[in-house]
Design a protein that fits this description.
The complex is a heterodimer of chains A (534) and B (449). In chain A, 51% of the residues lie in helices and 7% in strands. Chain A has a two-stranded antiparallel ribbon with strand order 1-2. Chain A has a two-stranded antiparallel ribbon with strand order 3-4. Chain A has a two-stranded antiparallel ribbon with strand order 5-12. In chain A, a hairpin with a 2-residue loop joins strand 1 and strand 2. In chain A, helix 10 runs parallel beside helix 12, helix 18 packs across helix 21 and helix 24 packs antiparallel against helix 25. Chain A is globular. Chain B is of the alpha/beta class and 449 residues long. Helices cover 39% and strands 11% of the residues of chain B. The radius of gyration of chain B is 25 Å and the shape is globular. Classes of the chains: A mainly alpha (534), B alpha/beta (449).
């Protein structure tokens, strides 16, 4: 079992290498933890958790870029939209007695204004801020309440003013972490408070604010040790909300797009239903492979199964599927399996009826093997175009090989190209085909870098190699660590990472155990003192 | 081939560049849609001025989009971008007594019932729009008048001075409010009236508190976290400045109007021989206050529909601030037609109208100014002061509500003004095809949007 209950998941007593240096992981040694703002998804979940609001204020916000750093950047439109959200929802929630009862949790015409105001200060604000109020908070919100009451002339206006400020407050929109006071002057870390750990747990595993149970665990200081944290983590993982977060991890990792597949006149049998169902299909695969059976990285990469409804089954030529809804079907293992061959991944980034082979290759190299791909040189110029008449006769693979055949290109593409072509049997919408442009498809190659290197005859062998690759597993752990931290993994994560990698190995690459282990790490439970010192 | 290269580099660079642009495109999308199908006007204002115009000094020269404002309309030059001159429309449904039939038909498109001395046979457009536009607001509509009830009407509601008629079975005449002090008190804090929620003060205070929270928290965090909050705070401060600059809702100063008798009309006689010099001299000051209160009633969301009447149809009061010591009807025909004096008076009305439009334009509301979301209809009971003719009415529209396309001089071939009333209703989201007496309805006016 991971964690083991003792002194944190830093890999107690072990030494971890950073470059050539040995690093002491005896004491907590957390990596950086930049201040995080709630994402659209998290904001939606948070207003549902705290106010019972099922409308989606996050949808007022701009779509988030993939890069963590860019996603957290603040710009004018964002701040304006926060204000708009605050105004609209504060007004809605305080409109009348019914609204106050539903969203604020107290009807002043029944419970009385004094009791309702106490409810706002004692229950609602702490839940929204994910911590008890400080005396300064109370003083400030008393002032806000009085202001609203004065301008609007009634209790509801006071509540509205409080809500409007609350919804724009940094304690609500950001996940503020100041930590407990440092144990000693000399230590360079601080432990997160129980409330901060509760907040990390709930946003990591649910994408939402702590529920009442977690909040009260924090109140009782029951999140101080790794065992308590593990108990709560396992509870949260047992809830459907965790599946939603895990789904988002893979969608981000593999650029599984939010919009359905673009319909193409070249493929008339691709209906709008099929185009949107493939997202659900990938999500169901992920859920199944995570929670049923071994739940391992190997299964994720190789399990030859998918989920289809009759429309998808008929589109992908899977026989014997009728009736309503999705069911699990077995795929031909010789064609490859796992998440990569799911149509939601295979169809991604393709232009109409042609596959975007390099894009698939990039997913494998960059996202699954953490290979840093160089950019084309700054003075790069397009090669001389090949005669269109010749191009018209080529397969996708041949066209791309032709395009990158120049010696300048080949310095990098010699390494990169093989990964691009392993999935050429999967066409632009993820159907398995044997012919491309009237020629038989060649999906064989040889991966050169990493420990997944070696010859492969096609997707089946390549995913098998990735599933067993230590580099791929390390990369996977790093991706999850980054996801949990809201930043890319860095060499400073060394102690947490070492613990995660050993746990991952001990559990045969079990994904759920990896998530539990993440909550046990130094990274998860501590911050660097230098980061919290004003 | 270059397209291929772009794709590849995009993939290689991950989110760089392109991903920054995407959210912005996304956020712009609803606005583009809004432009394709303009939103209905959310506010409507009628402005009545007595006595028509001096057409040759009113009509612009030039073309629809490139025109020169005439003497009378010249004061509206600063607001021409929000102005639409609607020329060549006839008030054909104005059947009845000369002045009475005119003011009754102006907003109702109906004729006077068994003229004279009876009222309209249908509701006025403002009252039709009030439930739609003012839903949930304190007042369904606000009618105010300056130096009203002169001459024959003797200070009381009379077909010669009423422009607004209820949307009920009797089309009851609605008398405008006259006393600036009681209007101010009722709207902005009189005894017994609930304190209005002053949106400007509210918004500013909320943002101020929000800003304070960021500033206070930023001080307690480490450098990197603090920087993120400081960046956020910068944008909040910008918002704050914009809210403060926008004016928003702020009750207008209640200037001293003790020299103005709002009920001076009670003392009038039919021919306008009794002069209340002190009250007449206060007209510009009171008119400005009435305008300010109307604008702020809209800005403070107390109502979305208003009417401002500059006197009644006769305006049997003097214009001492213009050096004109006879009353309007004297210059119209009682003293013989006096186009020079009338031009001065009508130009002054245009100037007051420009002030109203300016004030509306200065109030920022979500997605634009009050004026950009309004339709303002400026008219009179007749066109020709001497003959009382009602063809070629001197109508003006202003604002961009409903997608009204302004900064133009539109000339028409004498449609009935009922068609214009239908268009105004349509601009405000009421999609009926006829209004008033259907006999005078053909189709909504073309080319307005």
């Amino acid at each position: 079992m991971p964690g083991g209950g003792g002194g944190g998941g830093g890999g107690k007593g072990m030494a971890a290498p950073v470059g050539t240096e040995e690093v002491n992981c005896e004491l907590p040694r957390p990596g950086p933890a930049p201040l995080r703002r709630l994402s659209r998804f998290e904001l939606n979940n948070t207003v549902r958790e705290v106010f019972g609001e099922t409308n989606l204020p996050g949808n007022y916000l701009p779509l988030e870029p993939r890069s963590y750093e860019e996603a957290y950047a603040v710009h004018a439109v964002l701040v304006e939209q926060y204000r708009r959200i605050a105004k609209e929802f504060a007004e809605k929630w305080s409109k009348d007695s019914d609204s106050l009862r539903t969203f604020v949790g107290c009807d002043p015409s029944v419970a009385g204004e004094v009791a309702c105001k106490r409810h706002v200060f004692d229950a609602l604000l702490p839940l929204a801020f994910r911590r008890p109020l400080s005396p300064e908070d109370v003083a400030e919100f008393e002032e806000v309440f009085a202001l609203g009451e004065e301008l609007g002339g009634d209790f509801a206006s006071g509540a509205r003013a409080v809500l409007e400020v609350l919804l724009q407050s940094p304690e609500f929109l950001y996940r503020v972490e100041v930590g407990e006071p440092a144990e000693s002057q000399a230590s360079d870390f601080v432990a997160l408070t129980s409330y901060e750990v509760a907040t990390r747990l709930s946003y990591f595993l649910w994408g939402s604010a702590p529920d009442a149970q977690l909040f009260s665990a924090a109140e009782q200081g029951a999140l101080k040790n790794v065992a308590d944290t593990e108990t709560q983590a396992r509870r949260l993982l047992g809830d459907a909300r965790a599946s939603e977060v895990i789904r988002r991890f893979y969608e981000r990792l593999l650029d599984i797009r939010e919009a359905p597949l673009e319909l193409s006149p070249d493929i008339p049998e691709l209906t709008a239903g099929v185009a949107s169902d493939i997202l659900e299909q990938t999500a169901l695969f992920v859920k199944d492979v995570t929670w049923q059976g071994p739940g391992t990285f190997r299964a994720l990469m190789t399990q030859p199964s998918s989920w289809v409804n009759p429309a998808l089954a008929s589109f992908y030529g899977i026989p014997g599927v009728s009736g309503e809804g999705f069911r699990k079907v077995d795929l031909d293992p010789t064609r490859g399996g796992g998440i990569l061959v799911q149509p939601g991944v295979m169809s991604n980034g393709n232009s109409r009826s042609h596959t975007h082979a390099p894009r698939r290759g990039v997913l494998i190299l960059e996202r699954l093997l953490c290979v840093e791909l160089p950019l084309p040189p700054p003075d790069f110029s397009d090669p001389e175009p090949t005669d269109p008449a010749l191009l018209a006769l080529m397969t996708t693979r041949e066209r791309f090989e032709d395009y990158t055949k120049g010696s300048e290109c080949m310095t990098c593409h010699l390494d990169m190209n093989p990964a691009h072509f392993a999935f050429e049997h999967y066409d632009a919408v993820g159907r398995y085909v044997d012919i491309d442009n009237d020629k038989p498809i060649d999906s064989s190659g040889e991966l050169l870098g990493t420990d997944a290197r070696g010859k492969f005859s096609g997707a089946a062998e390549l995913v098998q190699n990735i599933a067993e690759s230590e580099d791929a597993r390390r990369c996977f752990v790093g991706n999850w660590l980054g996801f949990a931290q809201g930043r890319e993994a860095t060499p400073d994560d060394v102690c947490s990472r070492q613990y995660l990698e050993s746990t991952f190995a001990e559990t045969d690459g079990n994904v759920i155990e990896l998530l539990v282990a993440l909550t046990q790490t130094d990274n998860f439970r501590y911050r660097r003192k230098s980061e919290v010192t004003p | 081939m270059s397209r291929f290269r772009l794709n590849r580099r995009t993939v290689l660079r991950g989110a760089g560049g392109i991903a920054i642009a995407l959210p912005w495109l996304e956020i712009m999308a609803p606005e583009r849609t809004a432009k394709a199908a303009p939103l209905p006007a959310t506010r409507y204002i009628s402005v009545f001025t007595p006595g028509g115009t001096v057409l040759e000094n009113w009509r612009p020269t030039g073309t629809e989009t490139s025109f020169e404002l005439s003497t009378i309309l010249k004061p509206l030059e600063p607001m021409r971008e929000q102005l639409l001159i609607v020329d060549g429309v006839d008030m054909k449904s104005a059947v009845g007594e000369q002045n009475q039939g005119g003011i009754i038909a102006w907003l109702t498109g109906t004729q006077q019932v068994d003229s004279p001395n009876n009222f309209a046979s249908g509701p006025s457009i403002d009252q039709v729009l009030a439930p739609r536009l003012s839903q949930g607001k304190r007042l369904s509509s606000l009618e105010v008048a300056v130096r009203w009830g002169t001459g024959k009407s003797r200070g009381v509601p009379h077909p010669i001075n009423i422009a607004n008629f209820a949307d009920n079975a009797t089309f009851a005449p609605i008398a405008p409010r006259l006393n600036p002090v009681t209007i101010w008190q009722e709207l902005f804090g009189g005894v017994g009236a609930p304190e209005p929620t002053s949106q400007g003060t509210w918004d500013k205070s909320i943002l101020d508190h929000v800003g304070r929270r960021y500033a206070a928290l930023a001080k307690r965090l480490g450098a990197a976290d603090s920087q993120r909050l400081e960046a956020h705070l910068t944008h909040i401060r910008e918002l704050e400045q914009r809210v403060a600059a926008s004016g928003g809702c702020a009750p207008p100063p209640l200037v001293d109007t003790s020299d103005y008798d709002p009920n001076s009309g009670l003392n009038s006689d039919d021919v306008g021989s009794i002069v209340d010099a002190e009250t007449d001299a206060a007209i510009p000051k009171v008119g400005k206050l009435m305008t300010d209160m109307l604008v702020m009633a809209l800005a403070c969301d107390l109502t979305a529909v208003g009417t401002l009447q500059w006197s009644d149809t006769e305006a049997k009061h003097t214009f001492p601030w213009l050096g004109l010591n006879e009353h309007l009807h004297f210059y119209m025909n009682d003293g013989g037609y006096r186009p020079a004096e009338l031009t001065i008076i009508f130009r002054w009305y245009a100037q007051q109208h420009a002030y109203l439009l300016e004030q509306l334009a200065q109030v920022e509301v979500d997605g634009g100014s009050l004026l950009s979301q309004s339709v303002v209809f400026f008219g009179s009971q007749l066109q020709n002061p001497a003959s009382h003719a009602k063809s070629d009415m001197p109508f003006l529209l202003a604002g961009n509500g409903g997608g009204l396309r302004t900064n133009r001089w539109l000339t028409y071939g004498h449609p009935s003004h009922n068609d214009l009333l239908v268009s105004i209703l349509n601009l405000c989201g009421d999609d009926r095809a006829t209004f008033g007496d259907p006999l005078y309805c053909t189709a909504p006016l073309a080319r307005l949007t």
